[in-house]
Amino acid sequence: MSQPVLNITDLRATVEDKEILKGVNLTVKGGEIHAIMGPNGTGKSTLASTIMGHPKFEVIGGSVQLDGEEVLDMEVDERGRSGLFLAMQYPSEVPGVTNSDFLRQAMQAQSEDGKDVPIFKFIRELDKNVSALEMNKDLPHRYLNEGFSGGEKKRNEILQMMMLKPKIAILDEIDSGLDVDAMRIVGNAVNSMRSSEFGCLLITHYQRLLDHIEPDYVHVMMQGRIVKSGGKELMKRIDTEGYEWIKQELGITDERVVIEDEPKARESIGSCATSDMFKI
Predict the structure, then answer these.
(1) d(Cα 210, Cα 73) in Å, to the nearest integer?
(2) Does 200 map to a domain?
(3) Which pLDDT score, from 0 to 100, does residue 75 have?
């Protein structure tokens, strides 16, 4: 497999006629981990959802290309099959569908030759990754996210990523709801995926996750666009000084682009994305 490349060019998107993304430019390549940080309400989760094709968000300009193919022309399931993956901030519960059935069906849909995923190979890999994430051994037989704690849901998202092996993974605030030990486990799992065939876009509020997953690039998002980029030095300064110095430097008074009922909107994003994964 060659090095994947995700190119986001002047991406603009609206929700309920309000422009949220106002010209996002970003390139993520295999072997790279990009962290996007920024205050609440600046468009970070909207960026993730727009890339993956949530219908709530209308693209009004720009391009998203994976390996030269226009992602915005694809259906949600086609985006998944192309090699994109979203670990959701608010994973949905799906009663009646076990984790193992969900994962095997998703892996089957990704198979280029249409052959069944060998059951013994699937079980060995699933057991290995469940152990690496220190999850309960009964997880394969439990319904998808039903009755899971917040931390279990987030680890389950990482389990899906490890099994599906995407070209580019988008992790939307995967650290929220994780305790210190779970943060370390998730960080180790993401680091185990590092290769020239895997790129990662990591959306986070907290520098503490980046203690476990060292990004190659750090970007700050305000007012629906990336306003500053750098490396570890940028991350460290944000950790000690916050974002006020960036706002002063760039003459920004209000960094937000607020969506009304934002938590409910994010929950609907998770529900839609999960249902569309059954088409992958």
Answers:
(1) 33
(2) yes
(3) 96
Report the predicted TM-score, pTM, of the whole model to 2 decimal places.
0.91
Instruction: Give just the sign of the alpha carbon dihedral 72, 76, 78, 83.
Output: positive
Residue 117: the pLDDT is 87
Tell me the two tokens of residue 60: 């009004």
Query: 58: which strand partners?
Result: 14
pLDDT in tens, 214-251: 999 999 999 999 999 999 899 989 989 999 999 999 99
Give the Cβ contact number of residue 46 at 10 Å. Answer: 27
The CATH number of the domain holding residue 199 is 3.40.50.300
Asked, for residue 158, whether it belongs to a domain, the answer is no
Q: Is 104 helix (H, G, I), strand (E, B) or coil?
A: helix
Per DSSP, 155 falls in state H
Q: 262 vs 6, 15, 51, 197, 271, CA distance in Å?
A: 27, 11, 18, 34, 14
Are the C-beta atoms of residues 222 and 247 closer than 8 Å to each other? yes
Q: Are 177 and 156 in contact (CB under 8 A)?
A: no
Model confidence at 263: pLDDT above 90: no
Q: For residues 135 and 59, what is the distance between their CA atoms, to the nearest angstrom?
A: 38
Tens-place pLDDT, residues 149-207: 888 999 999 999 999 999 999 999 998 888 889 999 999 999 999 999 999 999 998 78
Measured between alpha carbons, how far is 12 from 62 in angstroms, rounded to an integer?
Answer: 6
Domain enclosing residue 84, as ranges: 5-92+167-277
